[in-house]
Design goal:
Length: 398
């Protein structure tokens, strides 16, 4: 404890640097953007839709996990049901808050359209959460829950393991324990617009989880990990193991259309094999029409792409990858410090804001004319630059 207090004192005295993976990523994207976001603390008054939905979904999954691990003596079906109910309640709360924010910010022109959009969004996010828990029900018997939305703050040690001037903060989506392998498992939830199996191609180069695995090791070595809802520590023998990436597609299946002759349409449609099959059964039993060859082909095609809305990818990162994260974090933290001290180091990466496939930078106006104070009125100013960590800490303490 004494050592810990000394470090805390050091931090207060020297204003040492604390970074998050998002902060590092922002600096790597564009040092000027990093300055606006993390030094001036400028944040758009209204959260972008994708960010808001991502945050509602994360809250829903966290509530669902907690509910599923609350009454361990219940059978799996009952626990799954609790997960879905808790997640759906969180979706109702989160979406109501997001649409209230939009109303306050006057971000709509037509109240009826806003209501319709709200209902559609609730249905979408509820489907994503429900589908997630149904697809991962095996976790309930195979994994023990340690924490969800776990905030952390750990020192980034130097080459020889000493605590120096750099700390890493963040929030882990999920930490679990796999008793079969005596392994701590890190879970990350990612939303995607297309096929969630694309995640397989992206995980190798994901620097964020290397940092989280580093932090998980620190927390475990310090004996800070307990099983959810208990005082029971995670076994000291447990190794920090694999990362599970949960890919959730931002889409929900649609009911197939029915042609004028009463047959279910076999046109290409975004749905699941189960929904299509149910529609075919209604065609046969209610409308007395036999299933056509073309419809069977459509059903087979839908079965073949079973993982259309959710996919899980597991990845084991090597020690070398985690070590690489450590020294790259040191290097980039130094670059951040230099850019803080000397504005001429605060370069702009116009390549980032002009990427054809990315959203326009929301800081473009203030970037073009940094001395126009009225442009800053578009933003709110946050006092703590790592707001996501502060929110997770508050939720943990609540
Ligand atoms: S507009 Fe471009 S150069 Fe300016 S802060 Fe944004 S990303 Fe950076």
């Amino acid at each position: 404890l004494k050592g810990k207090e000394q470090v805390e004192q050091k931090i207060r005295k020297h204003q040492l640097t604390v970074v998050t993976n998002s902060e590092l990523a922002t600096f790597r994207d564009c040092p000027q953007l990093h300055h606006f976001v993390y030094r001036e603390g400028l944040r758009p008054r209204l959260r972008a839709r994708a960010l808001a939905l991502g945050s509602v979904l994360h809250d829903a999954l966290a509530d669902g996990y907690r509910a599923g691990y609350q009454y361990l003596d219940d059978d799996t079906a009952m626990r799954l049901q609790r997960q879905i109910v808790a997640a759906e309640r969180a979706v109702d709360r989160g979406i109501a808050r997001w649409f209230a924010e939009r109303e306050i910010a006057d971000d709509f022109s037509d109240g009826a359209a806003l209501d319709a959009e709200s209902l559609e969004t609730v249905a979408l996010v509820k489907f994503m959460a429900r589908n997630f828990f149904e697809a991962t029900r095996a976790d309930l018997s195979e994994l023990r829950l340690v924490a969800v939305e776990k905030p952390f703050r750990v020192p980034v040690r130097d080459r020889v393991g000493r605590v120096r001037s750099l700390w890493s903060e963040g929030v882990m989506d999920l930490v679990a324990y796999d008793p079969l392998y005596d392994q701590l498992v890190l879970g990350e939830h990612k939303t995607l617009t297309g096929d969630p199996r694309q995640l397989e191609k992206r995980v190798e180069m994901d620097p964020q989880t290397s940092g989280y695995l580093y932090a998980l090791r620190e927390l475990h070595q310090n004996g800070e990990l307990r099983f959810y809802g208990t005082d029971e520590p995670v076994p000291a023998s447990a190794k920090v193991g694999r990362t599970i990436y949960n890919g959730l597609r931002k889409a929900m299946p649609r009911e197939p259309g029915v042609n004028k002759d009463g047959h279910v349409s076999s046109a290409l449609i975004d749905t699941t094999a189960e929904i299509y099959e149910q529609a075919l059964q209604r065609q046969v039993h209610e409308r007395k029409l036999p299933v056509k060859e073309q419809q069977l082909e459509r059903l087979e095609a839908l079965r073949a792409r079973a993982a259309g809305y959710f996919a899980r990818t597991e990845y084991a990162r090597t020690e070398a990858e985690v070590e690489r994260w450590r020294w790259e974090t040191y290097t980039d933290a130094n670059r951040i410090r230099e850019a803080e001290r000397d504005p001429t180091r605060r370069t702009r990466n116009a390549g980032h804001c002009t990427h054809a496939w990315s959203m326009p930078c929301r800081y473009k106006a203030v970037c073009l004319d940094p001395d126009a104070p009225e442009l800053r009125a578009e933003f709110r100013v946050v006092t703590d630059r790592h707001t996501e960590v502060v929110e997770a800490l508050e939720a943990e303490g609540a």
